[in-house]
């Protein structure tokens, strides 16, 4: 059985080392926060200017000036700090952040990532994605395995406009966990009952 | 000494002209200069270049400028969440320059701090790098240049008559950077406090970067997505 979104998020949450710092992208990656083991003391970074996101505020306690990059209200932990956008991206670009988890449209065998633009479709902008993939120490892509046409989003060579060149380290899809290594995709784990051929790689 | 304190937003903002470049602080709707945005929307300005991360959002903030066709060119990092801007772009009614958010911040910071240009790995090998110089360091980087503005409109939680500022929580975002990068920085505050009331150790932006400051009013402080524990 392929993993549900919750199972993908839960699995991803186990991959972080104790005491590490993590930036979680908007959408599916943000689900990972709900499954983090609190005893691991992981610091969640949000690029709008906060390190130490705890989760959702208590009812009635939300502050309009305390949000994450998805513009959602948040609460912070006791180690938290606030900073301006330049320092925030300095943390990222300077290699101080251990992990970044973000969504994907296409990842190829060389770790090239496309996740921000489909020519001819509505333009959303790259936000901080290009900075994140060129800065954080480990880049994880969390995405559905197949696109709407049923083709694998893990491909031999990306066709869509790139977010970053050779930046992806690991990929988690509903079918399993894969590592990008020397121009190859290695299987780290497949969801229960999934076999390699189900991944429909066409390398 | 000429005071930086203006008693009304009308006086503080009156010199802003058409055809100018304006930076506006805020991430989404968090920390936006609500009073200045509202007032400038009544000043019959056109042909503006606006530098702001989202150019308004969810139909609010700078969206009022978009709706009045005041903006010729928008420089931002993210359009998602701003359907009014999406529409202007798809109808080709606005010129748009997308800049990766970290590069956007750093171009603004560099302008304020006298750095003319910098090399960054962000955007290498993407359409952002087109036409830009590439140089190999430990990895290939592209050359990005500083980004100035004629005016910056900024909101802070607290400010004193010298223009020393203190921002609340994540409302800081691009604001102190933009304040440094403009020829004329106009700040609105929720609390105009006396000199010395913000301890020097706690000042987020020294007042040397601020030319005008006024007490704002009627803040909405809109929340875009309210998330709470059940």
Main beta sheet strand tally, sense and closure of chain B? 9 strands, mixed
Please give the largest β-sheet of chain A: 9 strands, mixed
The share of residues in helices of chain B is 10-25%
- Beta-strand content bin of chain B: 25-35%
Description:
The complex is a heterodimer of chains A (about 200) and B (about 230). Chain A has 3 helices and 12 strands, in the order αββββαβββαβββββ. Chain A has about 200 residues and is α/β, with parallel strands linked by helices. The relative contact order of chain A is 0.17. Chain A starts with a helix and ends in a 13-residue tail after the last strand. Chain B has a domain at about 20-100 and about 150-215: Glutaconate Coenzyme A-transferase, CATH 3.40.1080.10. Chain B is built from 6 helices and 12 strands. In chain B, the strands form 2 sheets. In chain B, strands 1, 2, 3, 4, 5, 9, 10, 11 and 12 form a 9-stranded mixed β-sheet that branches. Chain B has a 3-stranded antiparallel β-sheet with strand order 6-8-7.
Topology:
The complex is a heterodimer of chains A (203) and B (230).
Chain A: H1 5-13, E1 21-24, E2 43-46, E3 50-55, E4 75-82, H2 85-93, E5 99-102, E6 106-108, E7 113-114, H3 129-133, E8 138-142, E9 154-155, E10 170-172, E11 176-181, E12 184-190
Chain B: E1 5-6, H1 9-13, E2 21-24, H2 34-40, E3 48-51, H3 63-67, E4 71-76, H4 83-90, E5 95-98, H5 101-113, E6 117-120, E7 134-136, E8 140-145, E9 149-159, E10 165-166, H6 175-181, E11 182-192, E12 212-215
Parallel strand pairs in B: 1-12, 2-3, 2-9, 3-4, 4-5, 9-11, 11-12
Antiparallel strand pairs in B: 6-8, 7-8, 9-10
Helix pairs in contact in B: 5-6
């Amino acid at each position: 059985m392929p993993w549900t979104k919750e199972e993908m998020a839960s699995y991803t949450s186990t991959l972080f080392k104790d005491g590490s710092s993590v930036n979680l992208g908007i959408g599916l990656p943000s689900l990972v926060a709900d499954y983090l083991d609190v005893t691991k003391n992981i610091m969640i970074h949000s690029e709008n200017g906060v390190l130490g996101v705890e989760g959702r505020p208590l009812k009635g306690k939300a502050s309009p000036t305390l949000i994450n990059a998805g513009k959602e209200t948040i609460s912070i932990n006791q180690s938290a700090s606030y900073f301006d956008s330049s320092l925030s991206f300095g943390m990222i670009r300077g290699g101080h952040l251990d992990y970044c988890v973000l969504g994907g449209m296409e990842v190829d065998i060389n770790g090239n990532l496309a996740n921000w633009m489909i020519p001819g479709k509505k333009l959303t902008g790259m936000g901080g994605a290009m900075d994140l993939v060129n800065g954080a120490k480990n880049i994880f892509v969390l995405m559905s395995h197949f696109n709407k046409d049923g083709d694998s989003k893990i491909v031999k060579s990306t066709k869509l406009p790139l977010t970053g060149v050779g930046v992806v380290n690991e990929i988690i899809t509903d079918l399993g966990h894969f590592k990008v290594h020397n121009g190859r995709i290695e299987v780290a784990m497949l969801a229960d009952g999934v076999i390699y051929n189900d991944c429909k790689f066409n390398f | 000494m000429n005071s930086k304190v203006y008693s009304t937003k009308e006086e503080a903002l009156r010199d802003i002209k058409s055809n100018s470049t304006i930076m506006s602080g805020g991430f989404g709707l968090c920390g936006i200069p609500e009073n200045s945005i509202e007032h400038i929307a009544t000043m019959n300005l056109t042909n503006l270049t606006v530098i702001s991360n989202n150019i308004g959002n969810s139909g609010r903030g700078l969206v009022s400028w978009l709706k009045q066709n005041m903006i010729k060119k928008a420089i931002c990092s993210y359009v998602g969440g701003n359907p009014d801007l999406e529409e202007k772009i798809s109808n080709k009614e606005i010129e748009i320059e997308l800049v990766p958010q970290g590069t956007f911040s750093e171009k603004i910071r560099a302008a304020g701090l006298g750095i003319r240009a910098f090399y960054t790995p962000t955007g290498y090998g993407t359409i952002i790098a087109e036409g830009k110089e590439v140089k190999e360091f430990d990895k290939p980087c592209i050359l990005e240049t500083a980004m100035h503005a004629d005016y910056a409109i900024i909101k802070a939680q607290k400010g004193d008559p010298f223009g020393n500022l203190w921002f609340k929580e994540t409302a800081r975002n691009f604001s102190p950077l933009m304040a440094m990068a403009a020829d004329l920085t106009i700040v609105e505050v929720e609390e105009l406090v006396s000199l010395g009331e913000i301890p020097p150790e706690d000042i987020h932006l020294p007042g040397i970067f601020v030319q005008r400051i006024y007490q704002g009013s009627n803040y909405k402080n809109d929340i875009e997505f309210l998330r709470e524990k059940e």
